[in-house]
Amino acid sequence: MRILVSAGRPVHYGWVICLTGCAVLFACLGLGRFSLGMLLPSMGASLHLDYARMGLISTGNFAGYMSAVLVAGTATQSLGARRAIALGLALVGGSMILIARCTSFVPVLVLYFATGVGSGLANVPLMGLVSHWFLRDTRGRAAGFMVSGNGLAIIFCGLFIPWVNQGSGGEGWRTGWLVLGGISLAVTMLAAILLRNHPREKGLEPLGTGGGPPASVPGAGKRAGVARRDVVHLGVIYLLFGATYVVYATFIVTSMVDAHHFGEDVAGRFWAVVGGLSVFSGPLFGWLSDRLGRRLGMIAVFLLFTVAYVFAALSGTGFLYGSIALFGIVVWSIPTIMSAAVGDYMGPEQAVRAFGFITLFFGAGQIVGPAVAGWLAEATGDFNGPFLLCAALTACAAGLAALLKKPAEAGRAMGS
């Protein structure tokens, strides 16, 4: 089936997949993960949590995410991407609703671990769908539109959570978790209705004009071996992204409240600005990576991240504004480029497993990052040290990206 627009021209169902994927990421990552930074100040005060325990809650979520990544490929093969995504979203919504009833640290940690499991079960199969529904020349753009759902969720949380807290006192975070969980369950039903595992189910071909390498050519086994080494290279770069961006996403609002003495409502508006800018992050850098290549795209992005983290560690509101603007405009660029890159290297049939594989690296970085940052902030009394450490790591990531071969170059090296 094709969807018709008013001019009578058919719109490829891939764009329905893209828009539905945007809603899925709005729920499973945008609400399930990036709401935490806004909820932590009031939740921490209510439950008497120090910085170290706040960091462990975030780490627990990423540990759950990484656990799901280990089984996401198998679950997708057994259930199909659509059912796996719906199952993950249901777990996200249900666990967030239960967090609203928690009265101590340990239940929050356990339930937020479950939220991470659901996020992984939803996200990994979804990003694998990009390689099935879109060919190489449109993959980056499509993935970018999907991940803009994260930015929309940040806008929502940055405005909604402070409003709830003002009306509910110190326990407003409970209402926040309830509402966010309910929205996630609504998106679960939307995904179950609209998603499809492959264009064949609609009698269609993938959208685009440029495909990946042939599935079977002389020397393909050797080429696949080199491609797998390049995927490991991508994984290491993704680890550095995961270890750094999550520190900023988890603690920048807490830093604004504690170190810069902003009110929670003002900090929330700043976080909403991050979300507003980030809506353009995925589509912009996805399009640039389609045009300029994944390698150059990643180098540019990591250099911008480095500047953003250095600015976050410097005193003065001007540097803070610059940090927020830079972080917002690049934050979803790396997941966008990575989801397109694995299809370039491994082809659409292996894209889900390849994306799941590099997400293990990503998850490891997310597990370590908040715990180390929380411990370092507790030891030093502020977040300047953690932000500077993030800057050093993203500078290393830019260097590693510069060493990454293009898929065509990898193929030539294998044939020589």
TrEMBL record:
SUPFAM superfamilies found in the cross-reference section: MFS general substrate transporter (SSF103473)
Pfam (any one): MFS_4
InterPro entries in alphabetical order: MFS_4 (IPR010645), MFS_dom (IPR020846), MFS_trans_sf (IPR036259)
UniProt domain Major facilitator superfamily (MFS) profile: residue ranges: 16-409
Source organism, top-level taxon: Bacteria
Keywords: Membrane, Transmembrane, Transmembrane helix
Keyword Ion transport: no
Stretches that traverse the bilayer: 12-32, 52-72, 84-106, 112-135, 142-164, 176-195, 231-257, 269-289, 296-314, 320-342, 354-377, 383-404
Protein name per UniProt: MFS transporter
Species in which this protein is naturally found: Pseudodesulfovibrio indicus
